[in-house]
Amino acid sequence: MATPGRIRFTTWALVAIFMAALGTAAAVLSWNVNERTLAEAETQVRHFSSGAVAAMNRALLGFDVMLASADELLNLSATQTRQFDTPKANQLLRGAAQQNLLVRYIAVLDESGQVQASSAPAGASLAVELPPGFLQKALEQPVPTMIVSRPSVSFTSSERVLYLARQLHARDGKRLVAVAQVAVSMLMPVLMQSVDIPGLEVTLERSDGELLLSMPVWASTKPVKLTPPLPALNDRSGWRQKTRQTQRDALLVIHPTVYQDLWISASLPRATALDSSRIVRVSVIAAAALFAAMLVATGALMQSYLIRINAARQATAKAKAVLDQALGSMVSGVLVLDAEHRVVQWNLRYVEICPWLKPVLAPGLPFRMVLEHTARAFFPDGSDDTVNGWVRQRLQRQIATDSHEQKLPTGIIIQITERPIPGGGMVLTYHDVTALRRATEEIESLAFYDPLTTLPNRRLLLDRLAQAVVHAGRSGKTGALLFLDLDHFKLINDTRGHEVGDQLLQLVAQRLRLTVRASDTVARLGGDEFVVLLSDLPADGEAAEAQVQRVGEKILQNLNLPYNLDCQTYQGVCSIGATLFGQGQEAAAELLRQADIAMYQAKATRGNALCFFDMKMQAAISQRVQWEAEMQTALTEKQFTLYYQIQVAADNHILGAEALLRWRHPQRGIIAPGEFIAVAEDCGLIVPIGLWVLRAACRQLALWQNEPACAQLQLSVNVSARQFRQSDFADIVISELRQSGAPAHLLKLELTESLMIDDVNDSIAKMYRLRGLGVRFSVDDFGTGYSSLAYLTRLPLHQLKIDQSFVRDLGMRARDNAIVQTIIGMARTLELEVIAEGVETEAQRDLLARYGCDRYQGYLFGRPVPLDEFQAKVALSASPDSTSKRAALT
Fold it and tell me: Could you give the count of Cα atoms lying within 13 Å of 263 in the half-sphere of its Cβ?
């Protein structure tokens, strides 16, 4: 027994230890706050820096491409200097400058600096004020590359500008220079990307430290050279650097651009980064002081309490000695609980019956922990859900009845009797009834259990299911039936033999028993089919379904674990169908059929899944079978047809059409593909349907060659993923083109982005083979998939098709405007056509035209119509009367 003096010493020693730990924790926490703040700031700065470099690289590459393209645009390599057509060159340069919003003007200068042509309204009379030596530097480049000047002040606009120059050559050997003027204020948003990080300093410098751009803007207008140059700092990292402008301790992040002479730096002062965590550090210190005061108060209270407890224990010890003597003489096991269901006393026989409790059994141990340790002994490999489920069931049984039986892991069957005692406690007695129950179990096993797995057979399952339905109807609760089928089990029997298959079935049965509650039924119907009957689920349908979902997922998880079969590892999967009951008096056989249907629905989704039955499944199965049969008939009886939706240019000239599939159903009328294509893809009919569409389109193209108004029309055809992935897809297209006589250059195949990048090398091989014959390719619904320049530049594409989801809100949402502009800019850079689908209003068409899109498709110009209506529109449009052309598109 502890003395009061020892209690006081121990209490205040613990208080002192906790105080020391609290001080240490506060210091460590403050340090961690600083480090985390710095780490978050560094992540933010590095993310910004990467974005700034990417944005600046895109801008610089755009400038470089624009200057380099001036040679081809003005046809300098084929033009003598004296033959230079200045007005035409001015107009061409003006069109090129309008495609890049950052450029003020583009000019072509000769070796003396005389302007030969420019995009400015002044034309060749434009006064270009290049920084001293900049023109000569551009002319001295051994290899034509773009160079950037230092910032200077424009005489005409009085703003700071940069000049970008690239050397060009005329046919007669004369050297020319393409120059573009860019305002510094226009480049600043590109550099900063609309990111606002307090205290952040950003610079664009040359490799020798010459400052070109900075944020905050450098106050001086004179040339500035920062030291040391950025390349000398490129191998340094962390917060031990200096900001480039204010020279404060900071994090400095450096990146070179694609032009090795240009570098970007982003620096954040350390003090600024730590400002946001100052309040947190003060709060930590205040909280530590408050906890210290609470520890002192707690220590005083604990000391008083322990002294009183010590006196009470001495009185209890005398009473316990008498009780131990009485309990030790009993034949049955005894466990005494107090009013809070904590262990008070037990006898030796109880420990002999439940030996797994010997290491943990102690006065005050909660009875729930006794049950949890018992459950662990019952289910050594069971999950926490299994253990908790068993404990809940055991506690519910304790409330429902005062006597029940339980089979222990040692094989002993005990009868547990629970009786209340005065004061709210309880006495539990454990009596061995093993011999009697074993005789009863042997008789039942012969009639109601599967001899291989010892699980209930179909007879016992149907009996228990009928009882569960009646019980659910009376209690208002819900039950569930899970139908399990092992995927690919036949492969095990065929390759490894039936003995290994039987071994797998036994292991599956064991895992199922351990996965569900003891009150649930696991049965084997035969072969590799198992059934799990869950009872006493919540009355609420959604709650019951959620619980069944959890049980099903746990079953899938446990059955997916590896099996050791005949010294070899096997990874198994299964499909589960589930149905709920309890709302009516359903027949047991009908419930089995419903669960079986749901199981096959799970298999239809590639297996290893859980699927619930609902009445729509039966209807869906019937509908699917009907769709498949009717589509087979539609192919045979030629019920499919093509509708045509026109595609026009900016001047309303009809370029061609997109061929859209329609089904002329004898009862339902015209059916759009959205209603039946999914079924066609699942059952494989999409391949013959796609072949019919391709064949019909090629034949129509061939027929149009005999009609002058339609001879140059392009026809777009959508290609499905399964059709494109055929190994002989290219051969099929070539064969259809040759048999029909259709011109290959007028056939356009529309592919989705995900289809092409699923196997890029295979896509490239097929597309290049067809492109060699003239077939064109368009990326359908561009922008909605995994757009990547990496594959766009590798594939032989001709056109990008802007998805109608972006066109729909054009002019109303800035995000869609930006996406459309980006797609159009990307297409121009890659020299691809761009067409917008879903154009329904004049406002949308006008915005698209302003952004540079000059090909359209949508209800504004015409809905999908049959062939005769489409050809009538084309004929009307071909009329020289402009009024007739407009009428053809309305």
Answer: 23
Helix H segments across 81-155? 86-98, 134-139
Q: Which residue has the tokens 């009376």?
A: 474
At residue 885 the predicted structure's pLDDT band, cuts being 50, 70 and 90, is: low
CATH number for the domain whose boundaries are 330-436: 3.30.450.20
- Tell me the three state secondary structure of residue 169: strand
Fold adopted by 48-274: Beta-Lactamase (3.30.450)
Judged by average pLDDT, the poorest of 130-134, 294-298, 322-326 is 322-326
Strand partners, 345: 336
Query: In degrees rounded to 5, what are phi and psi of residue 524?
Result: -115, 120
Place of tokens 């403050």: 30
Query: CATH 3.30.70.270: does it fit domain 480-613?
Result: yes
Query: Looking at domain 639-880, which CATH architecture does it have?
Result: Alpha-Beta Barrel (3.20)
**How would you classify the pairing of strands 152-153 and 574-581?**
unpaired
Phi, psi angles (nearest 5°) of residue 774: 110, -10
- How do residues 453-485 score in pLDDT, each as one tens digit? 989 998 888 898 888 888 888 888 899 999 999
HEC per residue, 305-364: HHHHHHHHHHHHHHHHHHHHHHHHCCCCEEEEECCCCEEEEECHHHHHHCHHHCCCCCCC
Contact 183, 161 (CB under 8 A): yes
Alpha-carbon distance of 272 to 269, in angstroms, equals 5
Output the CA–CA distances (angstroms, integers) from residue 642 to 632, 672, 716, 864, 869, in the order listed. Answer: 18, 11, 12, 9, 12
Structure tokens at 251: 């994090």
- 41: tokens are 């700031």
CA neighbor of 836 nearest in space, from 658, 697, 693, 709: 658
Q: Which of 473, 725, 451, 739 is nearest to 586 (CA)?
A: 473
With CA atoms as reference, report the closest residue to 109 among 164, 157, 159: 164
Among the ranges given (425-429, 572-576, 790-794, 799-803), the one the predictor scored with the smallest mean pLDDT: 790-794
Point out the least confidently predicted range of 253-257, 658-662, 679-683, 696-700: 679-683
Q: Give the C-alpha distances (Å, rounded to integers) separating 306 from 147, 312, 344, 363, 497.
A: 84, 10, 20, 18, 69
| Domain 330-436 and domain 480-613 have a common topology | no
Q: Closest Cα to residue 67, out of 182, 148, 176, 178?
A: 178
Of 682, 685, 697, which is closest to residue 641 (Cα–Cα)? Answer: 697
Least confident interval from 34-38, 220-224, 586-590: 220-224
**pLDDT of the residue at 22:** 78
Instruction: State how far the alpha carbon of 575 is from the alpha carbons of 218, 572, 595, 596, 621, in Å.
Output: 68, 11, 11, 10, 18
In this structure, the chain runs to a length of 890
* Domain range annotation of the chain: 48-274, 330-436, 480-613, 639-880
Which residues touch 25 (CB under 8 Å, ≥6 apart)?
288
Provide mean pLDDT across the span 817-829: 88
Helix (H, G, I), strand (E, B) or coil at 486: strand
| Position 889 pLDDT exceeds 80 | no
Distance of CA 356 to the CA centre of its chain: 47
- pLDDT of residue 393 exceeding 60, the answer is yes
